[in-house]
Amino acid sequence: MKIENVKAVITGAGSGLGEGTARYLKNKGAELLLIDLNADGLKKVADDINCKYVVGDVSNEEEMKNAINDFNEINCLVNCAGIAVGAKVVSSRGMHDLGLFEKVLKVNLIGSFNMLRLCADKMQANEPDKEGEKGVVINTASVAAYDGQVGQAAYSASKGGIVGMTLPIARELASNGIRVNTIAPGLFATAMLAGMSDEVQKSLIATTVFPKRLGTPLEYAMLVESIVTNVLLNGETIRLDGSVRLAPR
Ligand SMILES: NC(=O)c1ccc[n+]([C@@H]2O[C@H](COP(=O)([O-])OP(=O)(O)OC[C@H]3O[C@@H](n4cnc5c(N)ncnc54)[C@H](O)[C@@H]3O)[C@@H](O)[C@H]2O)c1
């Protein structure tokens, strides 16, 4: 798919990787609908780059159905909305809260799937291009899907679910001309990571092989562009991580 023909829904667009992707794709001529739960962040980005936006929760069926219905001819979805929490299964502070586990699964995994099904339903009505392509979906997992640390039970489970659904959905949607891929980022300089102490950030960077620094939203957006424009990429999860392998803690 040519980047200037992209009509993309980007979730989590009010901050970090979603924001970086929105700015990058808009600059390349794409038409965008930006979605985020954080009204202030989202409005600032949308006003800045002059895009449509909807404030809402990706895991909410009705809200997202309404958001998508107002946007014509979607041919790309970039799922970036997500939350990270740290909690041990059992500790001196008690057991892992079950509601917290459910919430992480709901936002990260069910939210991604909700957006995927709503957008795929619209994409299948598109006119195919000369490759037969009607749309492309890009999910965001994490390297924590593979090497999650102590305290990441919920987060890793949610991201592992995204990795797990990538191939079966790509196989299913192939007959609709829709590709599905997932990016598994390592450590990126966004609000999500800024929540960790300098000490934790330094120790995480130390485990990165090369380059020894955090990734940038621009580098994430460049991979989104590669996936969009390279029709042979399908059913794959791509680690974008400077070869980091997270230590147990
Ligand atoms: N930053 C990293 O190092 C890193 C590493 C691996 C994976 N990721 C993943 O990348 C994605 C983007 O994260 P980021 O680093 O840009 O974080 P971020 O916190 O900067 O951005 C996440 C955005 O998602 C939005 N959001 C949260 N819950 C939502 C909901 N229910 N509905 C709609 N929007 C919601 C937030 O308001 C926020 O604007 C996440 O899925 C995250 O798990 C990030």
Describe this entry's structure for a reader:
The protein has 249 residues and is of the alpha/beta class. The chain has one domain: NAD(P)-binding Rossmann-like Domain (Rossmann fold, 3-Layer(aba) Sandwich). Helices cover 44% and strands 16% of the residues. The chain has a 7-stranded parallel β-sheet, sandwiched between helices. Helix 1 packs across helix 9, helix 3 packs parallel to helix 4 and helix 4 packs parallel to helix 6. It is globular. The model has no long low-confidence stretch (mean pLDDT 97). The structure holds nicotinamide-adenine-dinucleotide. Nicotinamide-adenine-dinucleotide binds next to helix 1, helix 4 and helix 7. Nicotinamide-adenine-dinucleotide (NAD) binds next to helix 1, helix 4 and helix 7.
Average per-residue pLDDT, rounded, comes to 97
Q: Please summarize the sheet with the most strands.
A: 7 strands, parallel
Q: Hey, roughly how much beta strand do the residues contain?
A: 15-25%
Low-confidence stretches: none
State the end-to-end CA separation. Answer: 41 Å
User: What is the CATH superfamily?
Assistant: NAD(P)-binding Rossmann-like Domain
Number of strand elements: 9
CATH class: Alpha Beta
Spatially, the strands of the biggest sheet line up as 3-2-1-4-7-8-9
CATH topology: Rossmann fold
Please summarize what this structure is.
The chain has nine helices and nine strands. It is of the alpha/beta class and 249 residues long. It has one domain: 3-Layer(aba) Sandwich (Rossmann fold).
Give descriptors for this structure.
249 residues; alpha/beta; Rossmann fold; single chain; binds nicotinamide-adenine-dinucleotide
